[in-house]
Amino acid sequence: MKIERIEAKSIPDTRGKPTVEVTLHAGELSARASVPSGKSTGSHEAKELRDADGGVETAVANVTGEIAREIALRDFASADELDTFLIALDNTPDKSRLGANAILGVSIAAQRLFAQQAGVPLWKAIAERAKTTPGAPRLYVNVMNGGVHADFRLPFQEYILVCEGKTSSALATARAAFEKLGAELPSIMLGTGGDVPMGDEGGYSPTFDTLEKPFELLAALAAEHSGTSIAIDAAANELRDGKSNYILLKKTYAPNELGMIYHTLVERFPFHSIEDPFSEDATQDFVRLTDALRGKCLVVGDDFTVTNPERIEAAREAGAITAVLIKPNQIGSVKEAIEAVEATHDAGWAAICSHRSGETMDTFIADFAYGVGAHGIKAGGLGQKQRLEKYERLLEIEKEAER
Ligand code: PGA
Ligand code: ZN
Predict the structure, then answer these.
(1) Which ligand is located closest to the Cα atom of residue 147?
(2) Residue 282's pLDDT is what?
(3) How does pLDDT run across 171-219, given as a tens digit for each residue?
(4) Of 224, 239, 353, 375, whose CB count within 10 A is highest?
């Protein structure tokens, strides 16, 4: 395929922060993609190129300048070939020269173009490329937002209701539970009552004075709906006290004490998974918790593994986790995100595909999760249209797959 024209521009994400949007044209075909952006990022992620003022003008210029120029000179047989070319063109280990945001925008739009050319839905093109069996992921619905996504009104970053089954029934369950929780919260949360604050990912963000209260609420929802369970993203990088301990609700905990908290929560509540229970390089703490919770609850790496096949391999050698979060923008190309899924599945682990806390209307992650047959998808709460778009796309895919 010859990509004749590339456009790029800066658009606002859900936090109003600039992010990259790319449009590719090839003959009659055209495809667009926009790139999400994280806030609780891992230090080992590929580098999102930001200008001194927080803008993405340099990244946009890299797409319309060097990348467009180089791509116009060539003909690509596959999206994979194009990704390989982009990775080599950047020629840094972390995509810091052209920017992971610039490269991923082109990479996703190109995947869409090649799917159009083949006349297949995007999820199907991804499944063929990744050699995976497509299927509906569990919905990880982030019903209560905390941590850096909500000024630490709740200590952990994400309180998730995991909904299993067909997307249409899982989403109906999630909607009922989300609505019920929204109606309950004003009378039970601390503070003024009235409107419930919302967090960055479209979930509620109440305040409570105990660590357990949000789990009691989640457990009540889970008890009401079969096929549901609890997950959290502790995002423990953000809980560090600057030494080797962690702070929750103003109290300091050593790693083994934090481990005990997780253990007690898992014993008491119907847990499915715990993400980033410790900071990004605390491998031995991950190993200990994974051993303690084996068969009871998945331990998920996010900042710990950063969608990087090499870090996933190292985690495998250590036996540090049992599931991996897959965020394409942590590694900066569709090709490498697929390789991260492969490394995850090779380890016998669960892959959970994820949006970022700064999102756009782009629904690529829904097709990606379905295409690779992911264990789950994190697409946020139901109180923000950019999150709902992903769930809506999964509903569309359910229909496409039945045809
Ligand atoms: P982020 O949060 O997009 O702000 O990194 C999501 C997560 O930690 O899973
Ligand atoms: Zn996370």
Answers:
(1) 1
(2) 98
(3) 999 999 999 999 999 999 998 668 999 999 999 999 999 999 999 999 9
(4) 353
Per residue in 356-377, pLDDT tens?
999 999 999 999 999 999 999 9
| Cβ–ligand 1 contact at 302 (below 6 Å) | yes
- Beta carbon of 167 within 6 Å of any ligand 1 atom: no
Q: Are strands 251-253 and 158-163 parallel, antiparallel or unpaired?
A: unpaired
d(CA 285, CA 89): 38
Tell me the domain boundaries of the chain.
5-119, 130-402
347's tokens = 């380890």
**How far, in Å, is the centroid of ligand 2 from the Cα of 327?**
10
Return residues with CB closer than 5 A to ligand 2 (ion): 233, 302
Ligand showing the shortest atom-to-Cα distance for residue 378 = 1
Q: How far is the CA of 291 from the centre of ligand 1 (A)?
A: 25
- Give pTM, 2 decimals: 0.98
pLDDT at 194: 80
State the pLDDT at residue 39: 98
How far does the centroid of ligand 2 lie from the alpha carbon of residue 275, in Å?
6
Across 62-70, average pLDDT: 98
Active site amino acids? 201, 327
From residue 59, how far is each of 54, 63, 254, 321, 359 by CA, in Å? 11, 6, 41, 34, 17
CATH class of 5-119: alpha beta
Handedness of CA 246, 252, 258, 262 (dihedral sign): negative
- CATH assignment, 130-402: 3.20.20.120
Cα(381) to centroid(ligand 1), Å: 13
Residue 191 has a pLDDT of 85
Note whether 241 and 251 are within 8 A (CB).
Answer: no
